[in-house]
Amino acid sequence: MNINKDFHHTNEQLNDELIIIEAAKLNPNHFAPLYEKYYKKIFNYVYQRIDCKDTSFDITSQIFLKALINLPKYQYKGVPFASWLYRIAYNEIMQEFKSKKDLQTINADISDLRYICEETNEPFFEEYLPIIKKLILELNQKDLEIIELRFFEKKGFKEIAEILEISEVNAKVRVYRIIEKLKKSISKIKV
Amino acid sequence: MSIKFNIDRPKISDQEINKNKNFNELVEQFKQHSLKKANADKSWWKNKIIRYSTIILGITVICSVSYLSLINNQKNKRQAISTNQSIKTKNKAFIQAPSQKITIPNTKYKVNNNKNTTILHTSNTKIKIPKNSFIDKNGKDIIGDVTIEYKEMLDIGDVILSGIPMHYDSLGHSFNFESAGMFNIKGHQNNEPVFIKQNKKIEIELCSKNNEDIFNQYYLDTISKKWNYLRKDIIIKNQLSHSIQNKNEIKLNEILSQSQKLNTLKKEITIEIPQKIDSVKLVCNKSIDKLPKGQNPYIPIKSSLDKPTFKIDGSFDEFPELMAFKNILFEVGAENKNYSKEIHEVTWSNLKIKQGTIKGKNYLLELSYRNKKEKLIVYPVLNESDYKIAQIQYENQLLTYQKLLDKRLADEQRLIKEMETKQKLYLAEIKKKEAAYNAEKLKLIERYNLENQNELANNFKSLSNVNRTTRLFQISQFGIYNSDCPHANSKGIEIKPIFILNETKKSLKPDYIYLINHDNKMVYGLNALEATKLNYEPNGNYSFCIFHKNILFICSKNAFNETIDKNNCQFILQSLPKMSENIIDFKKALEI
User: Fold this and answer.
1) What pLDDT is recorded for position B134?
2) Average per-residue pLDDT in chain A?
3) Looking at per-residue confidence, does B481 or B208 come out higher?
4) Across the strands, what pairs with B176?
5) Burial classification of residue B171, based on how many CB atoms lie within 10 Å of its CB (0-12 exposed, 13-18 middle, 19 or more buried)
6) How far apart are CA B226 and CA B530, in angstroms?
7) Closest Cα partner for B128 from B185, B211, B191?
8) What does the DSSP assignment read for B101-162?
């Protein structure tokens, strides 16, 4: 599986970002490059989980407003600024789901589901689709988020851990368990 | 809760996403939020307990400070008596330019207080002034134009000519500043000073010659006569070029994403054709699965006569290998230690055949009658006559099976070959489409480059400043600001310099002495009235700049080294010719 390169910054890129953040802490107008850089990514992250386009745009605006308000509290921890933004986005979406329960949607491409299947060392057949869907729908919220981040958005474990405020090992273990479950389900229908 | 599961939902176009972007609105919302928060924060003062406690605390603090300063004053008086010379020095103005002939001029800018203004200084420094930033001494908004006087000191020469002290004391330690750029900004209207309004900030993007990121920002408090630390320097060196680059990247990506042809090709290359390749494989696998598999016929085994057998009537649906032969017998295996002839004498009411210890070879025979139960491992065998018939039958079946197997293998090979041919065709199609994609992309990039030539030319000026570092200052009061790195004073070799004029060979009593450290681009202003002692690093690179009666004298790097090499303390000075009394020649003479 190819990991999304947006989250793998060089030290120079991280430093550039840090300079902009420091400037933006003093003057919100300096936040513009970060807004430009991450708007589309954050919107796609929201829209991935929500069925309504307009609601997704509203939530995205809310996320950036919260980011700007909380920017003075931002502390650099060696991961790109994006992770911090995604964490805000995750919390904002969860808040939204609490009030509007029918809002949540899972969106995946066939290729994403193929990636999941590949992880079980099984070739992908269309017959497996219902099992994969069923398994995903049965997951709890946090595990579902991990699967979405890992397989639908191709994020590295470090970023997943940072966004969900869990350890990197925990993120790996959770993915491993889900894949094992899927493996068992597939082997059942193969017999 | 049932969650909707969409597969391959259409994506939102970049154009639509960009349409919903609105940074100005975000900033506006942020400002409103900040205002609300500020109003909410004020409300604590309404609380009586907090209000009275704060007043009492304030009075206590004022009393303590007054008492302490009284004691300090008495101490200072005692010190003053013993150091007459230092009093003389202190009588000198805190900031005093050493030369009246060579000075850094103030640049004056007229700014309308009712408009947002950005001043571009000759050095490329930007001064951004938001509208309604200025008030007069009574706190009233200024109406009309304000004169901004600005000057900056970007190197050692500027620092010397400014007369601004570069000495810094912190926690009882003495330091000297290495400056990455300093500026003095003032504002007035009709010869009356103006002030920056509370909550308003003027941004100065100082175009510094130093690219290092080791500096802090300081403000010179001319009342307490010391530099005050403000914050770590904010460098926005590459932000401009970065943002231009980003902007260009975004624009290029926009153009690329808007191309229908490019999108179609990309979709075909990355999704559609790979899906076709997969489906070909899927179809092939299914076809192979559907091919008749046949069954390897079972080898008949002859009964060994010396071992007891059971004849069992009934059907063996579960075991097709047993169905293949007629009159099958079950021979009792040698491993059955529990076997006795009496077993044959019982009329067993119930009988079961199960899989044995070796699949397809032996079986578990379970016999029961009331409470009596027996388990035996048995082997299926045939008697002599049945065996012969079964053998012929087996050979015929084996022949048919082998034919079927050969045919299946051939069919499998054919299907795989067909699949590979199709996949090859698809891969060739991907290659063709990739070439078409790259050609189309190149065409669009060329078009984009042409369209942006003018814009790039406009950006060229900004990009040419990349070698210079932009340092962001946000100031809420006028005065002198500096981007500095404090260095501890040298503890190297100590000397008491004597200055000798080259022309007359007479000694000279300077008005101002500046020791220049060329290695870390620092200038030490030495006290000319005191019997001056100074320390230098033996391997350092130094020169002197002296002012005497408004005339500049230089002890060059070479002259300095010659004196040091001779273990001497007489430094030879050259005067700057009158013709060269300008900033450019002054800096040339300083060898910076």
Assistant:
1) 92
2) 82
3) B481
4) B167, B487
5) exposed
6) 21
7) B185
8) SS-PPPEEEEEETTS-EEEE-TTS-EEEE-TT-EE-TTSPBP-SEEEEEEEEE-SHHHHHHH
Q: How many CA atoms lie within 13 A of A137 on its CB side?
A: 13
Burial of A94 (0-12, 13-18, 19+ CB in 10 A): middle
B97 touches B159 (CB < 8 A):
no
| Residue with tokens 């988020």, as numbered in its chain | A145
Q: DSSP string spanning A95-147?
A: HHHHH-GGGBEEEE-HHHHHHHHHHTT----GGGHHHHHHHHHHS-HHHHHHH
Partners of B7 on chain A (C-beta within 8 Å) are 107-110, 113, 129
Chain A, 152 to 181: residues with Cβ < 8 Å from chain B are none
Q: How far apart are CA B588 and CA B140, in angstroms?
A: 47
* Structure-token match 């307990």, residue found: B49
Burial class from Cβ neighbours inside 10 Å (0-12, 13-18, 19+) for residue B393 reads middle
**Cβ-Cβ contacts under 8 Å for B220 (sequence gap 6 or more):** B164, B226, B227, B228, B479, B480, B481, B482
DSSP state, residue B11 = P
Token pair for B433:
């489409």
Give residue B457's pLDDT band: very low, low, confident or very high (50, 70, 90).
low
ipTM over 0.85: no
Q: What 8-state DSSP symbol labels residue B582? A: S
The pairing of strands B542-548 and B117-120 is unpaired
Pairwise CB contact (< 8 Å): A33 & B246: yes
**Cα radius of gyration rounded to whole Å, chain A:** 18
B17 in A contact zone (CB under 8 Å):
yes
What's the pLDDT band for B81 if we cut at 50, 70, 90?
A: very low
First-to-last CA distance in chain B? 74
Question: Which residue is it, tokens 């933004």?
Answer: A85
Would you call A107 an interface residue with chain B, using a CB distance cutoff of 8 Å?
yes
B247 interaction partners in chain A (CB closer than 8 Å): 36
| CA–CA separation, B219 and B480 (whole Å) | 6
pLDDT (tens digit, 9 = 90+) per residue, B103-143?
888 888 999 998 888 888 888 888 999 999 999 888 888 88
Write the DSSP string, B499-535.
Answer: EEETTT--B---SEEEEEETTTTEEEEE-SSS---EE
- Report which secondary-structure segment, H or E, holds A94: helix A81-99
Distances in whole angstroms, Cα of residue B380 to Cα of each of B316, B365, B393: 12, 11, 17
Average pLDDT over residues B149-161: 90
List chain B residues with CB under 8 Å of A68.
Answer: 26-27, 30
Q: Give how far Cα B243 sits from Cα of A30, A31, A39, B247, Å.
A: 11, 11, 15, 6
For Cα atoms B470, B474, B476, give the angle at the middle one, nearest 5 degrees.
Answer: 155
The CA distance from B528 to B546, in Å, is 10
Taking CA atoms, A117 is separated from A82, A131, A135, A150, in Å, by 28, 11, 12, 13
Q: What are phi and psi of B211, to 5 degrees?
A: -95, -5
Q: Give the number of residues written for chain B.
A: 592
Does B29 touch chain A if contact means CB atoms closer than 8 Å? yes
pLDDT of the residue at B428: 92
Residue B278: count of CB within 10 angstroms of its CB: 19
pLDDT winner (highest mean) among A6-15, B60-69, B386-395, B453-462 = B386-395
The pTM of the full predicted model, rounded to 2 decimals, is 0.40
Query: In what helix (H) or strand (E) does residue B427 lie, and over which residues does it extend?
Result: helix B384-451
Do B470 and B208 form a contact (C-beta atoms < 8 A)? Answer: yes
Confidence of residue A178 (pLDDT cuts 50, 70, 90): confident
Cα A52–chain centre separation: 18
User: Which range in B53-67, B73-87, B203-217, B447-461 is most confidently predicted, on average pLDDT?
Assistant: B203-217
